[in-house]
Amino acid sequence: MPPGKTAAGTEDPGQKILASNRRAFHDFHLGERHEAGIVLLGTEVKALRAGKASLQDAFARIERGEIFLHHLHIPPYSHRGYADHDPLRTRKLLMHRDEILKLAGRAKSGGTTLIPLRLYLKGGRVKVEIAVARGKKDWDKRESEREREHEREARDARGRSSRGIDRTGS
User: Fold this and answer.
1) Per-residue pLDDT tens for 34-92?
2) How far is CA 122 from CA 5, 15, 30, 92, 93, in A?
3) Do the strands 15-20 and 66-70 form a parallel or antiparallel pair, or are they unpaired?
C-alpha cells in the first residue's frame, strides 16, 4: 500500500500532498515505490507549502552512493527577504544506504529509471515518493486508455442499472 493511503484507499489525514506527477502514471509502468526525505532550504519549504512545485520533468539519479533529484521545479518564495534559491537545483534525497543500493540494482537493469510520483508533508517534514519505472510505448498508452474507458463505461452502466434507468429507449 503506498504511503499516505489507508486500507480503504483514502488519503491519510496526517499527510498533505504538495505536488503530484500525474503524467508519470500515463508515461510509465510503475514498479516498487519508496519514500525518501529531501534536503531543502527554508524558502523552498515555504514555496512548497504555498503549493508551487512541478514534478513533471523530474527524475532521480544515484551518484557516488547517494541519490539526487534532478529537475524538480520549486519557484522562488513570493515573500522572501534577501535569500533566494535556484528553482531547478539538484536536491539530495535521504534514504538508508541499503535502500539506495537496492534501488541502484533495480535502476541499472535495462530501461528503468527512478521517477518521483509526489511530494507530501508527513509529520511536518517534506517527503518524496519515488518509483522504479519503465517507459511505456505508444501502444501501451493507447491500451491503458482503452482499459480506463471500459472501466468507466462499466461503472456508469452499474450506476444506471442500480438507479433503474434504462437507456435503450423501451
Assistant:
1) 898 988 887 788 888 887 788 888 888 888 888 898 988 888 877 766 667 767 888 88
2) 12, 5, 22, 18, 15
3) unpaired
Q: Does residue 4 sit within a domain?
A: no
Strands 125-135 and 28-38, by their bridges, are antiparallel
First CA to last CA distance, the chain: 45
Question: What is the residue range of 33's domain?
Answer: 15-136
Long-range (24+ apart) CB contacts under 8 A made by 96-104 are: 97/65, 99/34, 100/62, 100/65, 100/66, 100/67, 101/65, 103/34, 103/62, 103/67, 103/130, 103/132, 104/62
The answer as to whether 145 is a domain residue is no
For the chain, what is the domain count?
A: 1
CATH number at residue 120: 2.40.280.10
Residue 155: which residues within 8 A CB-CB, separation 6 or more? none
For residues 18 and 10, give the distance between their C-alpha atoms in angstroms, rounded to a whole number.
16
Output the average pLDDT for the chain: 78
Strand 125-135 to strand 112-122: parallel, antiparallel, or no bridges (unpaired)? antiparallel
